[in-house]
Known about the structure:
Elements: H1 3-15, H2 18-25, H3 29-43, E1 48-49, E2 56-57, H4 59-90, E3 92-97, H5 105-115, E4 120-125, H6 128-137, E5 142-147, E6 155-169, E7 180-181, E8 191-193, H7 199-211, E9 217-220, H8 224-232, E10 237-241, H9 242-246, E11 253-257, E12 263-271, H10 278-291
Parallel strand pairs: 3-4, 3-5, 7-11, 8-9, 8-10
Antiparallel strand pairs: 1-2, 5-12, 6-10, 6-11, 6-12
Helix pairs in contact: 1-2, 1-3, 1-4, 2-3
Amino acid sequence: MELRQLEYFVAVAEERNFTRAAEKVRVAQPGVSAQIRRLERELGQELLDRSGRTVRLTEVGAAVLPFARAALAAVEGVRLTVGELTGLLRGRVAIGTVTSHSVDLPGLLAAFHDDHPGVEITLSEANSGDLVDDLRAGRLDAAIVSVGATTPAGLAIHVVSDQPIVAAVAHDHELAVHDVISLDTLRGRPLVSLPRGTGLRTRLDEACSAAGFTPHIAFEASDPEVLAELAARGLGTAILPGAFARARAERLRTVVIDPPALRGRLVFAWRSDGPAGPAGRALVARAREMLGSATSAPS
């Protein structure tokens, strides 16, 4: 018994016609007929009733058909499994990241490389807006990005941290006497912020727009540490993640902005329909396993 005989038998059973079945499997019709005859002789029973204008299954043929389909499906499963492993052994994976975050990305990539040394890994940095675009377009398999309360369309995420966005000022700044300020307090004041396209800046621009004003951005920098230093030198009010600002209490006074409460989420993101290749899917699975117990609670 050969797999091609089962394939031809299933094709004829489904098409109820030898000619159409031959076209489906791309074999000459006499070849299909001959192979099915050989299968019938081996089994000692006719599988097809050829007496009418339409080919029909015999009672034995109807009983054999599910097993023939299962055998072909099993073989296809073997092919897919080998293809997945081959792609994983020789694949490529592309990951993107924002500049500053709390994820042990070197640890993740090192562990993945240990598991799959043949996979080529590329890493790139960009702002959250560009990274989200690259994820949607399939140029990246996964990325660490900053997002708001709503998950970007077309993406799936694992939340790494969810924290307030605060104002951070020098200890002798006029706002340093406050624990909490309203968003409107920032109207017209020189602010120090990440550039457009970053998640934090997007949250700030959206909140200010809803409050009826455009924030006055006196200084921009892509490194939060630079923002902190500019604010500590008295050059403006830095807009920073809460945990980041509080960790620099010796240089900065952290002031809560409310209402509305500004919050930012750092997430590990991938396409909601999954990365295209096996290497990308393996990386996402490894990252979710690593981050499973590391998700920060809101603060």
